[in-house]
Amino acid sequence: MSIEIRDLTHIYNAGTPFAQDALKNINLTIEDGEIIAIIGHTGSGKSTLVQHFNGLLRPTKGTVRIDGVDLSQKGVSLRDVRRKVGLVFQYPEHQLFEETVWEDVAFGPRNAGITGEELEDRVRRALKSVDLDEGFADRSPFELSGGEKRRVAIAGVLAMEPSVIVLDEPTAGLDPRSREDLLGQILRLHKERALTVVFVSHNMAEVAKIAKRLVVMENGGIAMEGSPEKIFVDSEKLQGIGLGVPDMTLLMQRLRERGWSLPASVLTIEAAEAAILEALASKETGAKSSGAGKGSSKGVYK
pLDDT under 50 in the chain at which residues? Predict the structure, then answer.
């Protein structure tokens, strides 16, 4: 399922003395099955943008199309749109309210008229998708850990079986282990369900790990767009926007400044390890070759 944004402008409190431009002439296409990250500092317009994807916010100007259907057209059922485009808000566990995990996950599909065996199957599949076994179904969501609550909230969206899932800062407030687990689950869901994933974040390391394309927001507009490798190479521009780059990218940059022959596109620990080992092997080979005629290979590393 594709999302097409054209000339999107959103003004909060339009027509009043308190009017505030939140989005300005946004043009963006998200392709079916894509995994994309929207990044930017606080107030850049990230959350406002994604709330247009399922009609929670209406454009002041411009259009939002889901699979070619303009959400502002008469007769468009926003309820149907929200079944297809699931939005997981920041700190979604704050929205848990039922007595049991099962009831919380079942809430959305039941309100959509789904009952009986199909409802049971949806809840079971959704919990399995976020690595919660059936033993969690009868537990109170308020007795779970922060990471488990986050997964229950995501399961509630997945139970609607959307084609697109939008996650607004999904790892915010989680411990490192829970963050890693959740990122792994997002990647698996993208692969297994062929979901289109939109991931809003300000954590550059997480973005580098899962996104294939980045959209950088600044002051309500799109400042940069492209692959992580393309975006993170321009560290000066990112820092000017108020963002950083992944630690591994910064490490590679510092090593290159010291004369190491390393690629600029390294984003993860695994890629950095491989690049450094390759550079060390190359240095050692070169040192042995140059020292072969001198009978010594001392002084290779400094």
Answer: 296-302
| CATH code at 1-76+165-170+195-228 | 3.40.50.300
Cβ proximity of 217 and 207 under 8 Å: no
Largest CA distance in the chain: 84
pTM above 0.70, yes or no: yes
- Domains of the chain, residue spans: 1-76+165-170+195-228, 83-162, 254-291
156, 105 contact by CB (below 8 A): yes
Burial class (CB in 10 A: 0-12, 13-18, 19+), 253: middle
Kindly report, residue by residue over 29-72, the tens digit of the pLDDT: 999 999 999 999 888 999 999 999 999 999 999 999 999 999 98
Report the pLDDT value the prediction gives residue 296, as an integer from 0 to 100.
46
